[in-house]
Amino acid sequence: MDRFRARPLQTLSLTSRPPSPHALAWSCDAELAVATQECIYIFLPDYLAGHDADADERDASQYQFALSLQPSAVINPSTRINGQLCAQVGVKLPAPRTGEEGSFRGVGNGTVTGSGAALGQVIRVEWSPNGLGCNSRPVLMALTTTGNLITFGEQADSQSSATSSMRTRTFKNWRVLWGLGAKLPIPDSKSKDGFRTMNERIVSFSWSREIAPGRALLAYLNDMGQIVVMSVQYHRRRDSSKRGSEQEWIWTLTEHIRIDGRGPHKEATDPQDPDFSPQGSIFSLKWSPWLVDNGYRTATLAYLAKNHVGFRRIVLYGDWERGELPDVESERSDTTTMCLPLSSDALIEWEDAIWTEGDSHTARGIITTPFTVKSFQVMLNGVLSEPSPPHSIWECASAYADSDDMSTNPITGLIVHDPDPNNKPPIPYYSLVRLSATSTNLDWYQTNLPEGSLPQWVEDIGDQNARLVSRTAALYGVDSDFESDSEDEDKAMQDAPPAPAEPVLQVHPYRFRLWGLAKSPGDGCTAVLASKHDTQHPDRRGVSNVHFDWQVSADADDKANRVRPIFKPLTTEGRVWEWMYGLGGDVPGVTPGYKTSSGRQQSSPLKELFKRVATSLPCVFCDSQLSIKDDVAACENRHAFAICATSGIPILAPGISRVCGVCKMRCLKVSELEKLAEEHIGSVDAVGDSQGEVCGGCGGKFVV
């Protein structure tokens, strides 16, 4: 199979609309998540759609993202969510009292939310960095209106024979892993009960960039204006009686930092005040890229307050060993600050690059107010500024936006494109969409990229907005209670009664609302979440669609000369996605140019370690000598066995290996490698856990 036979990237139809903007999230492994009013749509990609001609023929009619999960988007903050999290450290939660099961009386300072009137609706989703969860896959975190953060992801039992035989990825092992926020219990060794019940309402959150497998930092903001930084780990429980993959995997959550994120401006909470304006954003936190220097790493956490933007530096000292608590601290004050007019749903986004000039390291980004775009630049290793004294929004002229920045069409989707490290643009390259796209407004899509072709979804939405039909045909052809595709609508309009000979009123039959914009791991594709509305009827159809844009090569024979450069490290899954849809380069061990046995059997420490072991193991059926050729080990009686892509050892029994979700090769489990090392080499120290976390053939993640 080549990239031109990949599954088609077709529009995804959803039966619900999002309750808030920026409702689209794309993970480092090209997994897609959409937050809507009724459910969270989670889509898993098929990276190669099969590896043989027969599979290609069977999957020719199957589109990309056909595998999906729709958990409910209304979540009650039940103590059961963290039952297993507490049980892992030996804490048993008390049973709820009679009449309290399923009830929620609210938390926080809000007049409504503090009384428990929040619905518990998911209003935002974000993927964690690479390598955090089970099988080194990212996990998905959702923010609810009750003030909870709920984490979804895989929780596979590697000892189960049912899961060990799986060759393709499914949602069978997906679970609600744990949660934070309002009324949820979390383990606390300082409490006499071994746990504490969180009594704060979370209003925003952000994952840090990738640190190391199984380790990440999470920042969240509560409704009291406090910013909290927690370490999140997924690691093996220390148990000397077990080894390798037989040890139990557990989650560890620890709070490290709590700082004031309210800013210097006085709160104006009286709605009768003529200068009152709504404030607050669920997108008010964002981590910069990590700056690694002199044995420690720093990142700047940007936060939005009332008409204020702050940049607080977070320092991670030393090596963070898996299973140990990290040494994390916050600087005493912000690196720099900005005062500017901000309204509801303001957003901040960093450029994924660090620019170095001499000893100075700077990072840049974009702020949406959300009606206009403001760029910023922060020195990651600069001198701290003095804390801003409390003042009113009139003193810093941030009460009202400039007349040039006035708009009534808010920005609901923003992506900052990956830059060429050798060509620094004056401001970060970005693309954005605004809420309303009609025939009369032309600013619903904006970008400062160098001139080029428009995304496919921009042309499609623009064509439908510009379409004109007679008002009679528009009234006849669109039924607000029936969702039909464009072909059905066109046919209905053609069947409308003929228009009179005299000139008739022509109208634009459709308009769009845009709810989010996301980019693929390597910035080769974009996706937009949009809902289509009728201009002539009251609209009651709660539907939306995900439209895609991808790179298209003009000539299949010219693909070698049309490779698009990618300027940042990606996971194997991300690189395969960009190879299929973003004109990215070939992926060793996966794509046709690197799929030979010589390309797969690369030298590695484990292959060198087990080189003699691999050629000395006998056949388990007839005890004759095995000979290894390409990816198969066979004896003289034609008993054949697959070869472990990590160690080169023949796999002689079922249930002791795992299959890669990308190249479909098998690798022995860590526990099996340790047994072989102890039996034939006399030491298990040479086999580290990291050797068994990804496929040795292509670096992809395992199915289970």
Structural write-up:
The chain is mainly beta. The chain folds into 4 domains: 176 residues, no CATH class; 131 residues, no CATH class; 118 residues, no CATH class; 91 residues, no CATH class. It is 11% helix and 29% strand. It has 11 helices and 39 strands. The strands form 11 sheets. Strands 16, 17, 18, 19, 20 and 21 form a 6-stranded antiparallel sheet that branches. Strands 1-34-33-32-28 form a 5-stranded antiparallel sheet, with helices on one face. A hairpin with a 4-residue loop joins strand 3 and strand 4. Helix 5 packs across helix 6. The longest helix is centred in the C-terminal third of the chain and has 12 residues. It is globular, with a radius of gyration of 27 Å. About 3% of the residues have low confidence.
Q: Quick one: overall form?
A: globular
The separation of the N and C termini measures 25 Å
Structural class: mainly beta
- The residue ranges in which pLDDT falls below 50 over 5 or more consecutive positions are 49-58, 478-484, 596-601
Largest sheet: 6 strands, antiparallel
> Which percent band covers the strand fraction?
25-35%
Please tell me how large the radius of gyration is. Answer: 27 Å
The residue-averaged pLDDT reads 86
- The number of distinct structural domains comes to 4
Fraction of residues in H or I helices: 10-25%
How many strands in all? 39
Determine the number of helices (DSSP H or I, runs of at least 4 residues). 11
GO biological process, one term: transcription initiation at RNA polymerase III promoter
Organism: Hypocrea virens (strain Gv29-8 / FGSC 10586) (Gliocladium virens)
Biased composition (Acidic residues): 481-490
Region (Disordered): 481-502
